[in-house]
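BUG-232 | component: ligand-complex export | severity: low

The export step for calcium ion jobs runs without errors, but we want the raw record kept on the ticket for reference. Input record follows.
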Amino acid sequence: MTHSSGRSKVLVVEDEPDISDAVVARLDGEGYETCTAVSGPEAVRIALDELPDLIILDLNLPGFDGIEVCRQVHAVRRIPIIMVTARADETDMLVGLGMGADDYLTKPFSMRELVARIKVVLRRSVPEPNDAEVLAAGRLSMDIGRRTATFAGQPVHFTPTEFDLLRALVEANGAVMRRDALLHKVWGYGDTAGSRTVDSHVRSVRRKTEDEIIRTVHGIGYAATEAPTVPS
Ligand code: CA
């Protein structure tokens, strides 16, 4: 969604004033429109009033936490969320919960990295109407243009990151992709996030596809299954 001003609007949810001020100043400088919230309940209210294009969401907030904010907002509107955690293992826990954030950042993060992530998530949330391609692997079918998927004939919801990860592997057609290549292709950067991010998202995708589509190639990376497509 692009607002009438032509600028993307970002809601910054952060209860530490120093961090919030720094993020808002940087985003203003980058040309984004911004709004802010300092607690869980306020974040939900402002998100649904202002309908931002993206939410930067601190996990640990007064009132209720970022998980609950994500749940309540996404129950109404599918707004992309970058979740900010205090520790890397919190990110693993959140990906494991499948709570639907589009990306994760661990404090302390650089403003340069934050802006890079924002650009990737915003670019990804724009639909690709001319892309009518359908990809299939095993019992998985992916409609690239609509960004929807079915597994074993049933609709399955992937987060935007999971969808792009799966797409990259299926497009590689059984070829092995190294973790750093996946990081570069799916996340748009290769040096800051590390392989834990890839592994966490692979675990989540596997859970949703009965561990059928992605295989581990030990010491190298991941590949999509070469199992024949079952006619539906
Ligand atoms: Ca906090």
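Assignee comment: Attached the raw record above. The helical segments are 17-29, 40-50, 66-76, 88-97, 111-124, 160-171, 179-187, 195-208.
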